Each structure stands twice: as structure tokens, then as C-alpha cells.
TrEMBL record:
Gene that encodes the chain: nanE
Keyword NADP: no
Metabolic or biological pathway, per its Swiss-Prot or TrEMBL entry: Amino-sugar metabolism; N-acetylneuraminate degradation; D-fructose 6-phosphate from N-acetylneuraminate: step 3/5
GO BP annotation list: carbohydrate metabolic process; N-acetylmannosamine catabolic process; N-acetylneuraminate catabolic process
Protein name per its UniProtKB record: Putative N-acetylmannosamine-6-phosphate 2-epimerase
Pfam families to which the protein is assigned, alphabetical: NanE
EC number: 5.1.3.9
Species for this entry: Kutzneria albida DSM 43870
Gene Ontology CC, one term: cytosol
Family recorded in the similarity comment: Belongs to the NanE family.
Length: 224
């Protein structure tokens, strides 16, 4: 199963279908529609947040599904405990995305605990990291894939573009697949991420967040 899933997403585009609470598109109905919209266009996988969205998307698409549970928005908030991870797996995720940074977790336990819980359920773990050291540590702890998701989000100003240097370095040093994710805003950047060695590319806001896409156009017009 693991080999099949990894082969299915290799070289392709995973679309992150997420809308935070408070946004007009928040909720499983809209996110399932988003997943149904991108699947026939050639997406090789879907990434989704929350038990309700994961369950709804699982019921409408057969693509590999990467689930997570964002609990809060500071510190370790992406699937912060083994309990969160189990719930996401049981909702139908094939892969559970988990914060793989070396920061303290809300329950004081380690990343490896969550890896064990997910593996017990027969699912894979994607470690969301921000640095090379975190990626290497996550692999040692049993992560099946590593993603650059959190680069730029663990302190300091958020950069404008994707961290392709981190993509290249981790792709070179990891034995497990390295996924490029975070601020990939164009097809060219997605292609460059693959050229840097990424196994797959995850794109969210540039495809599924109309407020972000609209603001980019508006800013371009205002800058004339
Ligand atoms: C940092 C964090 O919490 N990232 C989240 C992880 O699931 C999502 O908010 C992002 O949209 C996703 O990573 C895709 O990235 P982008 O939307 O930049 O293509």
C-alpha cells in the first residue's frame, strides 16, 4: 500500500483544499466540492484540514488523501498529538500530516509517539518541517514523507516565495520522499520544486483560496 501510494503521487500536484473558520468557503461541503473540482483536472492527491473535511472529501474522491488537524494557530498546531492524528486517520486520511518541528508539543510528548499511533492504524505520516535538521530528525523518528510546509512559519517575517533551497537540500539528504509545500504560487514555481528534487508538490492558496488569488490581481493592478 505504501509503495502504491508513493508511486501514485510521484511527480504530481497535490492540491490543498482548506478554508479556515470564518472564511465563506469554510466547511466540508465546500471543501468536498473543491476536491471534486481539482481531481478531474489531474491532481494526484488532496490535502485537507479537520475531521469533517477529511471525511467529506474521502466520500467523494478516491485520490490519496493527506489529512491534518489544525488546532490553534501558534506553536505546534498541525496535528499536535497522537489523539488528533488517530481522529484524522479514522476519518479516512491515507497519510496524516503532523508537525515535525523540534518545538515543544502541547501534551509534552514526542513526534515519534504520533508516528507510532498512525502506523498502528496502517496509515502513513508526513512530517511538516521548517529546517533541514527537523527533516532529518523526522525521518529518523519514522516519518514516511517529509514536507517543507512550515518553512517561514516558525518565527520572523514570512518570506514571499517558496523555500526551494530547503527543498533541494532535504531532497538530497533524505531517503524518504521530500514534498515541496508552502507559498508555491505559479506552475513555474511548482515545476522548479520538482527540478530541485521534490517527490511531489503541494499547492494550496494559489488554487483554492479565492481571497488570496483576487488580492494578487488587485495588487498587480494597483501597482500600475
Ligand atoms: C503553515 C501552514 O499552516 N500551512 C498549512 C498546512 O496545511 C496550510 O495553511 C497551507 O495552505 C498549505 O501548507 C499549502 O501552502 P500554500 O497555501 O502556501 O500553497
Amino acid at each position: 500500500m505504501k509503495e502504491n501510494l508513493l508511486a501514485a503521487i510521484r511527480g504530481g500536484l497535490v492540491v490543498s483544499c482548506q478554508a479556515a473558520a470564518g472564511l465563506p468557503l469554510h466547511g466540508p461541503t465546500f471543501m468536498a466540492a473543491m476536491a471534486r473540482s481539482v481531481a478531474p483536472a489531474g491532481a494526484v492527491g488532496i490535502r485537507a484540514n479537520g475531521v469533517a473535511d477529511v471525511r467529506a472529501i474521502r466520500s467523494v474522491v478516491t485520490l490519496p488523501l493527506i489529512g491534518l488537524w489544525k488546532d490553534g494557530d501558534t506553536g505546534v498546531y498541525i496535528t499536535p498529538t497522537a489523539g488528533h492524528a488517530r481522529a484524522v486517520a479514522e476519518a479516512g486520511a491515507d497519510v496524516v500530516a503532523v508537525d515535525g518541528t523540534l518545538r515543544p508539543r502541547p501534551d509534552g510528548r514526542g513526534f515519534a509517539d504520533t508516528v507510532a499511533a498512525v502506523h498502528e492504524l496502517g496509515r502513513l505520516v508526513m512530517a511538516d518541517v521548517a529546517t533541514v535538521d527537523e527533516g532529518l530528525a523526522a525521518e529518523q523518528a519514522g516519518a514516511d514523507l517529509v514536507s517543507t510546509t512550515l518553512s517561514g512559519y516558525t518565527g520572523g517575517p514570512v518570506p514571499t516565495g517558496p523555500d526551494l533551497d530547503l527543498v533541494a537540500e532535504l531532497a538530497k539528504r533524505l531517503a524518504v520522499p521530500l514534498v515541496a509545500e508552502g507559498r508555491i504560487a505559479s506552475p513555474e514555481q511548482a515545476r522548479r520544486a520538482l527540478e530541485a528534487g521534490a517527490w511531489s508538490v503541494v499547492v494550496g492558496s494559489a488554487i483554492t483560496a479565492p481571497q488570496t488569488i483576487t488580492a494578487r490581481f488587485v495588487d498587480a493592478l494597483a501597482a500600475r
